[in-house]
Design goal:
Strand content: under 5%
Distance between the termini: 39 Å
Order of helices and strands: HHHHHHHHHHEEHHH
Shape: globular
Bound molecules: Phenylacetyl coenzyme A
Number of strands: 2
Number of helices: 13
Structural class: mainly alpha
Length: 330
């Protein structure tokens, strides 16, 4: 089965001389920005890399519904509740487009979900943190969706056609998600002193995990070199992280919030903000299952799968009955 346990990508890039004729022709198409489609020939590692990344992305969307879902019954107004409900439904939809895109590569949805439920497949580290207050919901929209957009806009141009096309609609919806989160935080920051403290506390807890969403630093990123050669990734993890910091600092200023990083300062020579060291030990701990909510998130997905069994069985029985009827009248 294709899962994260499968080694994907080469440990180093192949030179032109080491490539077979087919591999060279494939690379030429990528270099010429021709999209690769499901029925085209592709190297096995290209296929596996895409299955790994797209399925992780899909899992992130559906696990990502859980932290915000925690606040649906406690949203402060009907309007905020309706917005949150729409956002969470969008995330379910993103999961479905992405599972469909991965299925074009020859893996089934059941196989992908089995890998998630067995703890073999990853999903984004960010969703292993708890949503303690209502301000966390706004902060997820602002920072987590903001980071997701930063990463996903370039994916609209990635080399695999079905993935690139799925990202177009996803990015439009993520943009609404980010705006609603920022709007919600703006309301808190312009509200009472207690509401503003709540917003600051949420930023203090979500800032560093949001920076980790972009993945390990470039020199520790196992897949980046090959994925960039294949234009599955257009920018490196560190490039996107820097863009995200540069985008977020002025947004925090408008909110009147302080980013919890004493080393954060504008560097006129680089034309970017410098920022402090990221705790990569925490990142790897969360990846290994040691984050505050890893167990809870996985248990919620497994129980949703088990409790939904009767729906899948009923849908299958209905489809079979319709087929039998059609066959009888044909
Ligand atoms: N969490 O060599 P790299 C969202 C793993 S969607 C967990 O750099 P790569 C929407 C990585 O898989 C958020 N694992 O890997 C939303 C690899 O392990 P493996 C998800 C991580 O693939 C908002 C190992 O580390 N977005 O938020 C993470 O080249 C609000 C080495 O790393 C996507 O999935 C991490 N943060 O680059 C929903 C976008 N980072 O597989 C609800 C598509 C790295 O060998 C509410 N994905 N790892 O076992 C990508 O762009 C890439 O996969 C990266 C990682 C950039 C995430």
């Amino acid at each position: 089965m294709y899962a994260q346990m499968v080694k994907t990508g080469a440990s180093r890039l192949k030179s032109d001389a080491e490539m077979s004729e087919r591999e060279r022709a494939f690379q030429d198409r990528i270099d010429a920005d021709v999209k690769i489609e499901p029925k085209d020939w592709m190297p096995d590692d290209y296929r596996r890399t895409l299955i790994r990344q797209i399925s992780q992305h899909a899992h992130s969307e559906i696990v990502g519904m859980l932290p915000e879902g925690n606040w649906l019954t406690r949203a402060p107004t009907l309007k905020r509740k309706a917005i949150l409900l729409a956002k969470i439904q969008d995330e379910g939809g993103h999961g479905l487009y992405l599972y469909s895109a991965a299925e074009t590569l020859g893996i089934t949805r059941d196989q992908m979900l089995e890998a998630l439920h067995d703890g073999k497949a990853k999903y984004s580290s960010i969703f292993n943190y708890p949503t303690l207050t209502w301000a966390d919901v706004g902060t997820i929209g602002w920072l987590v969706d903001g980071a997701a957009i930063m990463n996903q806009i370039p994916l609209q141009r990635c080399s695999y056609g079905p993935y690139a096309r799925a990202m177009v609609r996803i990015c439009k919806e993520e943009s609404f998600h980010m705006r609603q989160g920022y709007d919600s935080l703006l309301a808190l920051c312009r509200g009472t002193a207690a509401q503003k403290r709540m917003a600051q506390d949420a930023l203090d807890r979500w800032w560093w995990p949001s920076l980790m969403m972009f993945g390990p630093p470039d020199d520790a990123s196992t897949h980046s070199a090959q994925s960039m050669r294949w234009k599955i990734k257009i920018f490196s993890n560190d490039e996107l992280r820097q863009r995200f910091v540069d985008q977020s600092v002025p947004q925090a200023e408008v909110l009147g919030l302080r980013i919890p990083d004493p080393d954060l300062r504008w560097n006129a020579d680089r034309g970017h903000y410098d920022f402090g060291p990221i705790d990569w030990q925490e990142f790897y701990r969360v990846l290994k299952g040691g984050g505050p909510c890893n167990r809870e998130r996985l248990a919620a997905r497994v129980s949703a799968w088990e409790e939904g069994r009767w729906v899948r069985d009923a849908a299958l029985a209905c489809a079979e009955k319709q087929l039998r009827r059609q066959a009888a009248t044909a």
